[in-house]
Amino acid sequence: MTDIALSINGIPVEVPPGSTLLDAAHAIGVRIPTLCHDPQLTISGACRMCVVEVANPDGSTRLEPACSYPARDGMSVRTNTAEVRNARRTIIELILANHPRACQTCVRNGRCQLQSLCREYSIDEIRYEGEKRCFEVDTSTVALTRHPDYCILCGKCVKVCREVQGVHALDYVNRGFNTITMPAFDRDLAHTVCVLCGQCLLKCPVAAIRDRSYVDEVEEALDDPQRICIVQIAPSIRASVGELFGLPPGTLLTNKIPTALRRLGFRHVFDTDFGADMAVMEEGHELVERIRNAGPFPLITSCSPGWVKYMEHFFPDFIPMMSSTKSPQQIVGALTKTFFAQRMGIDPARIYLVSIMPCSAKKYESQRPETRMDGGLHEVDVVLTTREFGDLLRLHEIDLPSLPDGDFDPILGESTGAGLMFGVTGGMMEASLRTVATVLDPKGEPPLEFPLLRGTSGIKRGSVIVGDHEVHLCAVHGLGNARKILESIRSGKENIHFLEVMACPGGCVGGGGQPLPTTDEIRKRRIEAMYFEDRGKPIRQAHRSPAVRQIYRDFLGEPLSHKAHELLHTTYTPRTPRGF
Amino acid sequence: MSIQGPDTPDLQPLRQMLAAWEDLEPRKLIAVLQKTQGLYGYLPVAALDFIAEHMRIPEARVYGVTTFYSQFRLTPQGDHVIQVCDGTACNVKGSGHFVDELVSLLGIRPGETTPDGKITFQTVACVGACGVAPAVVVDGEVHGRMTSAALRKTVNALLEAPPRSGSRKVALPVVGAPARKARTFLDRCCGKCKTSPDNPCPDFLRCRLEGESCHDDPACEAYREELRKLVRHTSEAFEAHVFLCKGLTCDASGEAGIRKAFENELARHGILDKVEFIETGCMGLCEVGPIVQISPHEAFYCRVRAEDVPEIVERHILKHEVVERLLYDRDCRTEADIPFYKAQVRRVLSNTGKIDPENIDEYIARGGYRALYDAIRGGSPEKVVETILASGLRGRGGGGFPTGRKWAIARSQPDPERYLVCNADEGDPGAFMDRSVLEGDPHRVIEGILLGAYAIGARKAFIYCRAEYPLAIRRLEVACEQARAYGLLGKNLLGAGFDIDLEVVQGAGAFVCGEETALIASIEGKRGMAQNKPPFPAEHGFRGHPTCVNNVETFANVPLIIANGADWFRSVGTHNSPGTKIFSLSGKVRLTGLVEVPMGTTMRQVLEEIGGGAPEASAIKAAQTGGPSGGCIPEHLMNVAIDYDSLKALGGMMGSGGLVVTDRDTCMVAFARFFLSFTQHESCGKCIPCREGTKRMLEILDRIVAGEGKMSDLDELRNLAAVIRRTSACGLGQSAPNPVLSTLQYFEHEYLAHIRDLRCTAGVCKSLLRYHILDFCRGCTACARKCPVQCISGERGQVFVIDQPRCTKCGECYRVCPFNAVAKV
Ligand SMILES: Cc1cc2nc3c(=O)[nH]c(=O)nc-3n(C[C@H](O)[C@H](O)[C@H](O)COP(=O)(O)O)c2cc1C
Ligand code: SF4
Ligand code: SF4
Ligand code: SF4
Ligand code: SF4
Ligand code: SF4
Ligand code: SF4
Ligand code: FES
Ligand code: FES
After folding, report:
1. Contact status of B715 with chain A (Cβ, < 8 Å)
2. Do B688 and A175 touch (CB under 8 A)?
3. pTM listed for this prediction
4. Ligand having the closest approach to the CA of A195
5. B548 and B499 in one domain?
6. How far is Cα B787 from Cα B791, in angstroms, rounded to an integer?
7. B409 lies in the same domain as B547
8. Domain carrying residue B806
9. Chain B closest-CA separation from residue A4 CA (Å)
10. Looking at the complex, does the CB of residue B99 fall below 8 Å from at least one CB of chain A?
11. 3-state DSSP: chain B helix, strand, coil percent, rounded to 5?
12. For residue B174, what pLDDT is reported?
């Protein structure tokens, strides 16, 4: 098909068929404001911020939403007439009439799309005053809080939860002026199928969905001399945290992070990558065992707590297929409060372990009863998201990019490229294969990279030959994609041996705790940085890690040993409400 | 914080119902919720949870759907339900007072239930009885021409009645069993006739109507001829035929007891079996109902009460003389004599009020299904589309889009899975045309739908009918069943290899679901939120397939056009708006009812020649068309021709056919506010200009009618109106400001009077209104006795006074004073 030719603000432009007016405007550098539009989601055309003037054949004009209106041959569009500006300004004013307008005390201050629009359209007075919607704040979950009064009903949370994650924990409720987005029956989010992936928060243009912040608690612990504060930080954050300090996405700050954490007052600085290396060992050996025992297949990864919770609500029949290996964060937690405490001769109860994670579901994971240690201690005491990490640094006057380099602590802070790969979709599987191939074929020269597991396609499939076995692989990210695969496995249409599921699109680089904004483009840049970092690592296979070897030698014995099971494995349980 | 029902219901009945449901797809969610509410009287959360699990639908969606539609309740209702109609016609006739009255009488607000669980009080938007406005529905029964006194009496009776126990269900209007004819067209003349319900003869229609049978036998033809007479009510077997109007309005004004009275009386004379009763749909002249027509003589009796029946039987049926005192007036014996009908051209309504809508034979005998028969047996889908295109038929649902063009677009889609939808949502408060056609002549609509489905190549069609029309829904279902039995609906239609399935879908109380994309979402079992267009439904509709949505009246025109040709259709109406249009005329005219006129008729003709002008001692101020999406035409522009384009040019809108007349007692600001509050309430909530903008406009209007307006408010209204109109996502928002803009255009002085002089010239806006007793009060005590709050005092024979702070401005004193000594100031 040939391109469509139209004119925007008198400038001729050609776009491929299927383009919207918004696409066409972008192509010539015209930036139209949007609130409800998101390229990852279906179009709804709800906010009407993007209206532009379209000429009718008879010379009159009409306003149409650029985000959804298809570009057609010969169209003449104006994006910035007095009427368009007035309409957009009026729409902003209408939002403000029903908004708390509490920027000074709002977590989104400075990173809020509504606020930016107010500035762009020079809103300098409150034009309409009247009744406002009034709903309760929902603080029921450990990870996210909902503040419906701030909601501007763009619908993106509903759509991402339904279309991308297939969870459908939220929907529009009521009608007209009383419309709001909320969980079923006005229930607390904690009592729904929500998996706390935080994707809705990433999409929300305002402060209607927020992190449940633990910055104050961490501050308090850091000030408490009785506590031994230890920190671990997840792989993907080294490629994203720079964005909070104005650096382009994908800027690696791996070496700055340990310095910053020490400056914050942490006594020991561990790396979740180490836990990931351990997870490769355990889960890799689970795969080896299943291959040797011919099942049950597929072995399904368990490092993404959003995915685990989803499975428990929606697909509890897959529990037997799940890898029982804990997630890297919990492995580091368990080893810190056993191995490390014993080695250092400290009472594990004094340890206060903070995880810095790209993920809101990790907050939930750290509170799961299954992760309680003997004696009731939590393996991980508190989880901060990347964003909260940034808040903490700023509060402590730490300008991350300009810090001198530093290193993670030995052993629990040592890692390989394999562990790093957990931060991207397909990475966990790639890391495992690097080890499993060696186990099954000790003499062979297995590849270090598996291109079929790379790239941003939602479902990646293929097979590899390891030893005498052909292993069918599948890596999915985004729970909606997980649903597709699980349903076809359920119906017997799929023959997969090893399935990796990451709840968040792109994997943890796109996690619900990552800096705002997190778009497809930004995810890609973070992923590239992770691959780059992996390639530069001296060791890229978990089983070659001296730290890993030492742990097994000195403490756990061998992978899947009794002790390893006790400390590094967990169980799952069907959860209500059942999800559909 | 989560919603919990007051009790834990027994889920067993629900479980049984769902287990027995055969085609339970997720799109049936709304129907399931309706049935569940039927079981429990409300929707217990536990039941909703169960439904979600059983149907495998996300809970959040179940809740989203439940809270979208106003029919659904999450808490139980009282033993009795009183619904005050807050539609346009009722509002113009003062139903607002009833709300105030009930609030003070029951101590609860609309939507609430009295603490003892006895009475639930709600407001509803138009129950379709506008002809006898104001209407109040008590436990499902419509009471027309309600007065404050009657309402109080009804409520007190309910309050005194002993409490009911057991399940609380709202009774729907009860309809008698379909009149079973002793003989039907389906019966065979002899053994040679092969037709059967399972395998109907394709030549059946011709055989029965024209006698072109597969076999030539005079006895068989005689048999069929007698059958035809029976069906056409010309059979000599009966001495008289009594046509009873069972339209809602007549029923609401007392028709129910009349048939009984006739039967008793006829039985007493021993001639019950000599008289045939035909219960018809709305005869149109609702104002003078209940109407009974009797042939011989085709006498048209008005305002018939049960007490009149013995005289009618005695004189008309036994002695064949007309009872003059019950006629419309001395010069009008038959319907055709009455000016109301004379000035009309009843095409679409030609059967309505004349036939028994529950008997397919009557429709067939009057030429029904012949168009379908000819089109399918002798024509082609293309020919149907061509004829409709040539006829210039424009959609009667409001937009006026050429129907033929829409069908051609759908037909040209590469996707062969296509759908057709009949829009019977008629949400415009103050409109009851579609209802009357559906109730009075359902087969005509069905035939139109079948022709449409054939034309665009759809194998599945839906009729989406609002739940507030239970009788129409039932009639449609009965009609579908009959059509199926006659081989006119279903597989291999008329043996021509065309399959068509027709499903009646019930709305659940959402005006926006009349908008086609919202309607489709609703059929899909979702919240009725409108979608962006393009893509238009004709390209991308139900489940993503090409879908044509057309209005009831549009479809009802189709068989006429196919049978009589495009030129016949164009023989009335204007060039750009050919054909006729039905209006439901209500408000401040002498005669209210159902009116069909050629397009291009002037507004003045409709109001004066047909409607009989303003009621005595008043003057028409304006006519509002298009309901909440439309505008008003002021008296000095009444010569405007009624067609799509002329009305638009005046800031009005054809709309679907609601025509509400206002007079000097109507405050145009309050009138505009009424419409806006309707649309504001009905906004689906998706887009910001409509959801937030109409709210702010309404708040401004609220201030103005409360006497707190500012001059700058008018500019704010105009700006908001312009933005909402231009930027809203669907027709609801785009047209919501129309009533305000058109009243601002023609009645700005009324706005100014409210803002600057703090005066409501019509004496409607309570905050600006004071009742005052004038010096020539005779002290008769009439007002003091009627005042519900007893704030009038005085000595008998002296001038009475109103204690202003306590006065609730109910206006009762103003209405009862025999000397007009109470003034509104
Ligand atoms: C808010 C709203 C309500 C509507 N309600 C109705 C209705 O009740 N009945 C109807 O036929 N059309 C209604 N329409 C128009 C329909 O969207 C659609 O245009 C119509 O059904 C098309 O049929 P027609 O071409 O035969 O008129 C409504 C439109 C809007 C925007
Ligand atoms: S959400 Fe945005 S506009 Fe609203 S208070 Fe917060 S920062 Fe301000
Ligand atoms: S956190 Fe994830 S699952 Fe929960 S509501 Fe948000 S998008 Fe849905
Ligand atoms: S909560 Fe946020 S994302 Fe969801 S509809 Fe409201 S503003 Fe949009
Ligand atoms: S993919 Fe990563 S960020 Fe997302 S839920 Fe899983 S662990 Fe958390
Ligand atoms: S205009 Fe109103 S009814 Fe239509 S989509 Fe927008 S909010 Fe919904
Ligand atoms: S004084 Fe008249 S208007 Fe006022 S409350 Fe009494 S009867 Fe009603
Ligand atoms: S961005 Fe286009 S309507 Fe919201
Ligand atoms: S019945 Fe009340 S407005 Fe129609």
Report:
1. no
2. no
3. 0.94
4. 3
5. yes
6. 7
7. yes
8. 770-824
9. 17
10. no
11. 45, 15, 40
12. 40
